[in-house]
Each structure stands twice: as C-alpha cells, then as structure tokens.
Amino acid sequence: MSDNFLRNTWYVFAWSDEIDGKPVGRKIIGDHIVCFRGRDGLVALADSCPHRFVPLSLGSVNDGLLECAYHGLRFGAEGRCVFNPLGDPPDRAVVKTYPVVERNGVIWVWTGDPALADPDSIADFSFLTAPGRATVTGYAHVSADYQLAIDNLSDLTHIQFIHRDFQASEAYPRLEHKTWQDGDDVYRSLTFPNGRPAAFLQGFLSPDHLIDFTVETRWTLPSNVKLTATVTEPGAPEQYLIGNDSAHLVTPEDDGSCHYFYAHSRDYGVGDPVADEKVREWQRIGFGEQDKPVLEAQQRRLGHRDIMQLRPVILPTDVGGVRARRILAQRIAHERRGEPAPQAMED
Amino acid sequence: MSDNFLRNTWYVFAWSDEIDGKPVGRKIIGDHIVCFRGRDGLVALADSCPHRFVPLSLGSVNDGLLECAYHGLRFGAEGRCVFNPLGDPPDRAVVKTYPVVERNGVIWVWTGDPALADPDSIADFSFLTAPGRATVTGYAHVSADYQLAIDNLSDLTHIQFIHRDFQASEAYPRLEHKTWQDGDDVYRSLTFPNGRPAAFLQGFLSPDHLIDFTVETRWTLPSNVKLTATVTEPGAPEQYLIGNDSAHLVTPEDDGSCHYFYAHSRDYGVGDPVADEKVREWQRIGFGEQDKPVLEAQQRRLGHRDIMQLRPVILPTDVGGVRARRILAQRIAHERRGEPAPQAMED
Amino acid sequence: MSDNFLRNTWYVFAWSDEIDGKPVGRKIIGDHIVCFRGRDGLVALADSCPHRFVPLSLGSVNDGLLECAYHGLRFGAEGRCVFNPLGDPPDRAVVKTYPVVERNGVIWVWTGDPALADPDSIADFSFLTAPGRATVTGYAHVSADYQLAIDNLSDLTHIQFIHRDFQASEAYPRLEHKTWQDGDDVYRSLTFPNGRPAAFLQGFLSPDHLIDFTVETRWTLPSNVKLTATVTEPGAPEQYLIGNDSAHLVTPEDDGSCHYFYAHSRDYGVGDPVADEKVREWQRIGFGEQDKPVLEAQQRRLGHRDIMQLRPVILPTDVGGVRARRILAQRIAHERRGEPAPQAMED
Q1: Which of A53, A70, A71 has its CB closest to that of B307?
Q2: Which of C161, C297, C307 sits opposite B71 (nearest CB)?
C-alpha cells in the first residue's frame, strides 16, 4: 500500500450525472471501485467479481442489482452475491463495500474504516447546485501525482504563464498575495489591482473598464480546492461586478496519476448556452491543453521520486502549497501510526 | 524460463493458409519461432539470425531457403546457414530447429525435446477439413494468460452473458450440465432444453421452433478445445436438426498473453457466402469484442498473480476448468522434475 | 549512470535549422538538455526548472532569455535565473550548462567536464555546407542502442539486402572491401566493380553505363560516420562521374534508443528540387522504413543484453564495426577509471 494517500477521508469518485443506468468503475488511491445506482440507491463496491476477478464495472444493473458480465452473478448494497442464475449464491461471494455519499452533484467515496465515515466532514461545495447560477462540469485524467495538481492550484500565479492567452493580466507585476489558515483549511488570495480585464472576461466587461481581479482559493483535506474569482471596481472591494466560483476536486488514482474533476459556476450569462460553451472551451483548453501537459511533463521529470527529495527552489508564492503538503503529510503519518486524526494545525 | 508452460507438447503455430510465400514469426511459450515453406517443405526455426540477432521472419524465402533481411545469410531445414553471399557459410551459424507438422489446415510446432515429438499425440481436429462442411477460421491475439482462455472455454455458461446478443437462450434457467473425463481429455456438456432458438440460429430455424440446444466441449492437452453444438428436437436427441463444430486452439505467447486460433465448421449453409460472412461477423464480435476484453480485464486485475493465489469462489460449473488446470499443472510438474509423462489421470 | 556512454565528447544535439525562435529539448546519453538561441547566442542547459522541475523546453524565449512555462522564471547563458516576475531571482535557481558549438549546420553539445571541451576535436563534416553542393537533412528517432546503428553503418554490405530496391547491385558477388585505421578513426571501403547502376543512380546515369561504385565510410568517436559514395568508370578510379557525401550522426538518447541525424550532400542535380525530393524520399524510406525497423527488431531480440553477451557469429565484413566498438569501449573504460583519454589506438 502506498504511503502517499490518506485513507480515512472522502474522495470525489464522480460527478452525479456520470452514473445513470450503467455502473462506473474507477481506481482511486489504488483501489478499484465500482459505483452504481440500484434498488438500494447509490452503492460503491470493490470492482472485482470474487468468482473470476472480472471487473464488475464491465457488467450491468439488472433488477436493481449489479450483474457480473461473465457469469451473471448479481451483487447488492451489502456487497453480497444475492443471485446466481444457476443455483444458490455462494456464501463466500462477497465484495468489500465503500461508504458513498451524493451531495451537490458530487459522489464522494470513503476509502478508510467505514466506522469513521462522517458525511459532515465533507467540505462545502454547495455553490455547485445553488439557484440562480450556471454550472459547467468536466473531467480530466492526469498522469501526474495528485499533489502536483494541488501545488498547481495552491499557487495561482501560474495563470499568467500557463493560461496566458485567457488570463494574463497587465496588472501582474503589481500582484498582491497572502496566505492564511482556518483550522486545517488553507486559504490564499491573489489580487491583480487596477488592470484591464483579461481575455476571458472581455465578453462580459468592456476592455477599457479598469478593475480589481481577485482569486481566492480554499484548500481542504484531502485534495480539493474551491476557487472564488471576483471582479470589483478598483480600490472598492464592496463594488462587486461579476464573479465565478469553481471547484477543483482532485482524487488520486494511484502513485503518479490522478482524476481531476472541475466545475465552474458563474452568476453572469446564466441560461446562455453560448456562455456555457465558452466555459467548456476554456476548461478543455485550460485543463486539457495547458495544465495537464505541464503537470505530466513535471511528473516524467520526477519519475518515482518525491519532489521534495530533489530539493526544489521554494518561492514566497509557494507557501500555500507547502502548507497543504505539510498538513496532508502529518495526517497520513498519524493514520499510519494508528492515531486518531489530530486537531487542526495551528496557523 | 516460465513455470507456466508444458514444453514437451504440440502447440498450434498458425493456420496453414497463413504461411504462403513469406516466413511468419510468432512467439510461443516465450520462444521466438519462424515458420516458412522452403525447398524441404515446412520448416520451423528459432527466429533470430546468429549473426546480428535480427528476426529471420523479417527476411524472405529465396531459392527455397530462409534469407536474413540484414546481410543475406540463408538457412535451410536443419537450421544451418548454407549460403553466405560473400564467402563460405560460417560454421557457427546454426539456429535451433523445431519439429513441425501440418494437419487438417493447422500447423503444429513441438517446443520440447525433439526426440519425444510424436505427431500421433496431436488431438483430432479432422472435422476442420472434412468434406461437405463449410469452415471459417480466424485469429485473435489476447493479452491474457492462456489458462484464462481455457477457463472461459471450459465453462460455456458464460455464453448467456458475454454473448447475450447472439446466444442467450430463454432455456438458460433450466440448463443441464455434466462433466466427465476420458484419459486426460476433459469433456463437458450443457443442454438448454426446449427453448426457442438463440439469435445466431434464427437465420436457419424458425423463431417459433422449440429445440434442445447442446454444446459439448472436449479439452485436450495442452490447451485446445473442440466444441460441438447440436440442435435437436426437444426431448429427442436422435432427431438431429443442424450442428456446428468449432475449434478453439489456444497457444501461450508468453506469461500473460496468448494466441487464440478459432474455426467454425458447419453442415448448413455450405457454399453460401452470406452464411460464411455471418460466421465471420460472429467470430469478430464474439471473440474480438466480447471474450477478449473480458479476458484482458481479468488479466489486468490479476497482474502477475496466478488466479488461484487469490482464492476465487468456485462454482459447480467450474469443475471442467478446474480439472483441466489440475491435469496441466501435474504434467508441467512432472516435466520440471524430469519424469516421463504420467499415464492419463483417472477420472 | 549507464556504463554505455562516453561523457567527455561532443554529441550532435540538432541540425542548426531545428532551433529557431523556440527552445528544443532532447535527451542525450540520459541527460535532459534544452537548447535555445538567446541574447548570448546559442545556449544549452539542463532541461528542468529548479523550482518545480518542469522542462524548460516547454517554455519560450522571452527578451533573449529562456522563460519557464510554469511561473515565468527566466534563465540566461550561465544557467542562472536572472529574472523572477514577482521578486528577486532566487540564489539557488541555477541549472547546469553544457558547452555547445555550432558548425557546418550542426549543433554539438559536450556532455562531460566543461574544462576538457575542445571544439577542435569535433570531426570534420564541412562538406555539409561546402559551396556548389545540394544538401538534404533529416532526423529519425530509433528505439535501438546507438552502437547497433554504428554497426549498421560500419558494414554497408547490408545495402544489398535492406535497401535492395534502391541500392542492390548486380556486381555484389564481386564486391571488394577493406578496412583501415587512422588514429582512432576507422575507415572501410566497399567497391562494386563493373556493374550497371543501382536504381537510385538511374536518374543520373544511363542504365547501360557500366560503372565502378565505391562507398567509403569514416567512423569517428563517439558515433559519427561520414560516407563517401563515388561513381567512376570501370577500372579507372581517376575517371570520376558523380558522387555523394553523407553524414550519419548518431547520438545516444539513453540505453536502448538513439537519435539518428542524416544528411546527403551531392554534386549533381544541384538546385533541382525534383532531385532534392528524390533524396528526401530515399531518406524517408531508407532510414524510416528499412534501417529503423531492422535495428528496432534487433534491439527487441537483445532486450537489456549487450550483443556481445550473446556470442554473435562474426563475419569478415564485421571488422570495421568490431574495431569501432573496441575503441569506444576502451575510451569509456579509461573515462570510468578517471584516466586521461589515451593516444589513438594503433592499427
């Protein structure tokens, strides 16, 4: 088992709308898991039939049960085979179950001790289904360690370079940034003061309209980021113009790869399919063609080494990512030693 | 050398019509072998030139000899270089030869001690070239251990699920099955009693015609299955309607992958190219899109582990596959200890 | 570090025209290196930003410096970060530099101790930019050890077989060949006497014109070959008809793969785009479809083993390749022991 992952935590498994009539299989923190909607609602099981070890996710939902594609054994919410088409279900035909919760369009799976699974510990992403907003979701598989994706999100100064065509701001040299902590949540805020709107805002604001542009990130355990982008009148944070909340939900697949679920929820252009398409295009390019290749190239350079082994140069802008890594590392170390989760670290 | 393969046995190397004017290279049980038709007939050699180790299968048949693609050395039936375009053939330029037999459209290669190679020990597949029948052959490379393919063929209850669209029968819940042994050959029979024809039979029988459908498999060492499908009047096995013999010849490529040669030989629609095409389509879908992905997914779950290490749930329908695995394991163990092949195991 | 490579030597990194406004990254002898043209001319650096280890070759040249794609740090000729868009350049942000030389359209990088880098030790390929000639360059990535490519070039008897369609000669059975040495340079010459022109010459000579065709190769450390092809009147080497010099510059990428830079420079059809296209087509087929697949198949047969471990049959025509391997092996052994490069080996 890899030392790289927290187990007693909730990971994002899928967007709600990814799972309809068919089972969906995904590997998270090295475990193959299948999720389906059956007669007992949403169920998450080990994705391997105990008979011949074929992935159950190749099967289908039949009579509200998950039917194996190979010989038709059917499994229910408790992970037990409850139907064998040619006889009694074998006693030993039982697979592991995982606690699963659906909330605000997100399906979360708990990978650790089921007795500790508390849905109240899931971070708040209720903006995803808040009324009066338009939300566009997406997914990218990234062949890079999840902590590299978190580093990326914890230091948004990269948007000036990686996402130059959409997001570069003439105010960059005057950038103000700060980092703070609330319990185990790490916050960072970047303000690009008194500049013209970046390209991605120019459909919604006049190119000559000088603005303050602020992006605030909230990292929560294990590896999820809420990002709030706000446009205000220069020097007047109370004079709100438009805004955009986004979710960046990163789930380790295994060592060296992760699932990246993203969503952008805006309060402008609501109900406008052209604006939706613009967001979708931006997601496709921004994550698929810009972040993903950089993260994957970074991973190829690192190989099997942890980035810290290579003694990276640390910049002042790395402070948020460093804190998130430290909190996560301490939690993992506690878990390995079998100790209860510590109180939130002091700032 | 892998412990997973019997060496003193005949393996299917190719269909006869795969080898015409050009040499064909294939890896079987980890050995690279090239087969060609030359001045001494069919020849099988180690597929590696002793000069620069380029595969001889990249070369060509020239003057009835196998000519290396790189520098033109030519090799004959004894594996000896008998022609060097720029001088005498070097004494040391000799490659290993393999006993090879062509029978009923199948090319068999013996991978063990040549002194023990007895063509009479090749199982009977003479139906493949029997008169008055129409036979369609094909090939699939499968990235799964050959024993997983044998398990698949030894328990045909899977056809109701994997091949549902072609072969699912309403009589499945009433399925009768039995297993028996004759020497080292393992037989299994499944009867779907008194049901309407499955989809793949509906071009040849009226959809309302109630039938008994029986499939009998004969597994022979090392890993080849003859399958006889018979349609009879319900309750009257002597009232034969139509039938279909098929060969499922599985040759290990190496650990975790195999060659799957299949052929269907029928006594209906003989000479009808539309019926041929229907079989070919069924083979392409049935093996290529249905069995192969399931076997490969199974292999990915197993990784480098043998399936028995994972303590699979065993169903009554697995008895044929379990016997075949046991017979094969005993033969391999005998061979590893240098003992002669045992008498056929008792039933 | 692999024992397979000489480090104190110049390797070809690129053709000059491959590097214009954008940086180019390539791995040579296992080192990731980036080359760009900046305010200080041509620069070669370790291709990894010391901040987050993203390849610098993903970045761009900005203000004559190499800018990292991720956070905009910029690096100059000394490998030092000289610009940080959000503050002072960090002291520790320095990457390794490599001596780099551009000569006759070729960019050479020195991978060893910079103090020993002497551009005068670069072998002469000045024909590449000599006036009155037409030169066509190209590149192929080959998944085979660089020494297999050198073996290929050191024994051109293979052209009769691998390049049969272009280069086979009816004079092959009368081939004369010799090998000699000048210092550490290994020369070989092959003459196809008194034959009709091979196919690739038939656009330039009458098919009935009997000729002597001579190819001479000069191998120089570490792995570069100059090949001179000359067509003369039969038995009259002084009666020169046409000729062709080519460069075959092989750079190890890592164990088991190499970069193959090739160029053909001719004194006929100069200024004729049809003749250029013919050369380009020949390069594409000759290297891409003929040499490359053979070398890669050879490498797959060898796996991680050195060819010498397998005790290959040695032919008289292998003498040039054997000498080149021996000289290279001795140089590498000297370097590993920390001794100065030896005097050129005696013939």
Answers
A1: A53
A2: C161
Q: Is pLDDT of B347 > 50?
A: no
Query: CA–CA separation, A83 vs A75, rounded Å?
Result: 7
Nearest by CB to A298, from C53, C87, C92: name it: C53
- Would the CB atoms of B315 and A86 count as touching at under 8 Å? yes
Q: What is the ipTM of this complex?
A: 0.94
> Could you tell me the strand order of the sheet in which A10-15 lies?
A10-15, A106-110, A100-103
The pLDDT tens digits of the residues spanning A192-217 come to: 999 999 998 887 889 999 999 999 99
Q: pLDDT tens for residues C227-237?
A: 999 999 999 99
Q: Residue type for C293, please? A: P
Closest by Cα among A86, A82, A80, A53 to A69: A53
Give the separation between CA A261 and CA A15, rounded to whole angstroms.
8
Residue type, B106: V
pLDDT at A269: 86
Q: Is the peptide bond before A222 cis (omega within 30 degrees of 0)?
A: yes
Mean pLDDT taken over chain B? 95
Write the class of the CATH domain C10-121. Answer: mainly beta
Q: Most C CBs within 10 Å: which of B33, B68, B70, as the mutation test of the C interface?
A: B70
User: Out of 3.30.930.10, 3.90.550.10, 3.90.380.10, 3.40.50.300, which CATH number does the structure's domain C131-336 have?
Assistant: 3.90.380.10
Contact residues, chain B, for A52 at CB < 8 Å: 151, 298, 307, 312
Considering the four listed CATH numbers 3.40.190.10, 3.90.380.10, 1.20.1250.20, 3.10.20.340, the one that applies to the domain covering B129-336 is 3.90.380.10
Average pLDDT, chain A: 95
pLDDT per residue as tens digits for the range C54-71: 999 999 999 999 999 999
